[in-house]
């Protein structure tokens, strides 16, 4: 079409689709173009602003590597990742939450009662719970991919002083769906803010902080994969997570335990003379 105007460009864009275009591709691209065009018209987007946006995307591409995905981080801080999670969470099952850009594949196996803290400083945290279905039945043999930050607030993929699988583990629940391990209490941390995402946060007057949390990917045959994270109820950033990952059902309570009370059945049993924290958290999976 030769006569393209600000008012008809979206319709013209749609008319250019080929007759064999997949219907879902047509739906998604048409909606994307419509919202982009409406955004430009509504804000009267200038050439300088348009170029700034493209430069930010180019910058994100340059600094993205296997250890840091700036595009995932951009999706996170804009709330898109969490919105997609919430749109596809199943009522009655544990809410999903953001995967984040720092997951490491193929973590080492960890037996029930195993330890992830190793030689790191910090108070011992004993974590345990069960994996169940939406009817309350145990999901025996469920796999739990677990990871977190070190006490310095960095994931292993960010920190050259850590082994790549530091604070990463894969656990198989027992026949009753039980899992249990020890670690060090995670800490609040800032998302990387030295790139285009950091500039967006600065421009919006937003901080880069996330509340402390434990990450999980829970899988079991016949069930939907759950990607989520759980947060302590006393974290100062719980109500202002910069990536919008907190859900009511993902908030847990660390309970302080007195010195000398550490239980049997763990790799650290008999090795924890001081006070420690304990938390129980159950995961509910929905059928596939």
Q: Would you kindly provide a written description of the structure presented here, covering whatever features stand out?
A:
The chain has 288 residues and is α/β, with parallel strands linked by helices. The chain folds into two domains: 1-45; 80-285, Protocatechuate 3,4-Dioxygenase, subunit A (Sandwich), CATH 2.60.130.10. Helix content is 24%, strand content 20%. Helix 1 (9-15) runs antiparallel to helix 2. The longest helix is centred in the first third of the chain and has 21 residues, at 23-43. It is elongated and about 80 Å long.
The parts where pLDDT drops under 50 for at least 5 residues are none
Q: Quickly give the structural class.
A: alpha/beta
Radius of gyration, in Å, reads: 23 Å
What's the number of helices?
6
- What's the CATH superfamily of the largest domain, by name? Aromatic compound dioxygenase
Overall geometry: elongated
Number of strands: 13
Helix content: 10-25%
Q: Mind telling me which CATH architecture of the largest domain this is?
A: Sandwich
* Main beta-sheet strand count, sense and barrel state: 6 strands, mixed
Mind telling me the CATH class of the largest domain? Mainly Beta
Q: What is the beta-strand fraction?
A: 15-25%
Alpha-carbon distance between the termini?
46 Å
- SSE order: HHHHHEEEEEEHEEEEEEE
- Count up the domains: 2
Average the pLDDT over all residues and give the rounded result: 96
């Amino acid at each position: 079409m030769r006569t393209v105007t600000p008012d008809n460009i979206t319709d013209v864009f749609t008319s250019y689709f080929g007759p064999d275009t997949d219907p879902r591709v047509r739906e998604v691209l048409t909606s994307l173009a419509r919202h982009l065009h409406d955004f430009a018209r509504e804000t009267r987007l200038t050439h300088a602003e348009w170029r700034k946006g493209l430069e930010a995307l180019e910058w994100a591409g340059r600094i993205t590597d296997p250890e840091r995905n700036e595009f995932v981080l951009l999706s996170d801080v804009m709330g898109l990742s969490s919105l997609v999670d919430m749109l596809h969470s199943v009522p009655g099952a544990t809410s999903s939450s953001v995967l984040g850009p720092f997951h490491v594949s193929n973590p080492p196996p960890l037996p029930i009662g195993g330890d992830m803290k190793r030689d790191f400083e910090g108070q011992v945290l004993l974590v345990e719970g069960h994996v169940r279905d939406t009817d309350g039945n145990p999901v025996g043999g469920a796999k739990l991919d677990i990871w977190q930050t070190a006490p310095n607030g960095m994931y292993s993929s960010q920190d050259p002083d850590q082994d790549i699988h530091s604070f990463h583990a894969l656990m198989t629940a027992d026949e009753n769906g039980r899992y249990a391990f020890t670690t060090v209490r995670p800490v609040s941390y800032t998302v990387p803010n030295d790139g285009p995402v950091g500039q967006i946060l600065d421009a919006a007057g937003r901080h880069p902080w996330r509340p402390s949390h434990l990450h999980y990917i829970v899988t079991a045959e016949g069930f939907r994969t759950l990607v989520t994270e759980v947060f302590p109820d006393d974290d100062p950033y719980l109500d202002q997570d910069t990536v919008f990952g907190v859900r009511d059902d993902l908030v847990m309570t660390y309970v302080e335990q007195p010195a000398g009370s550490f239980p049997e059945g763990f790799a650290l049993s008999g090795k924890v003379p001081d006070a420690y924290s304990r938390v129980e958290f159950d995961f509910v999976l929905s059928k596939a």
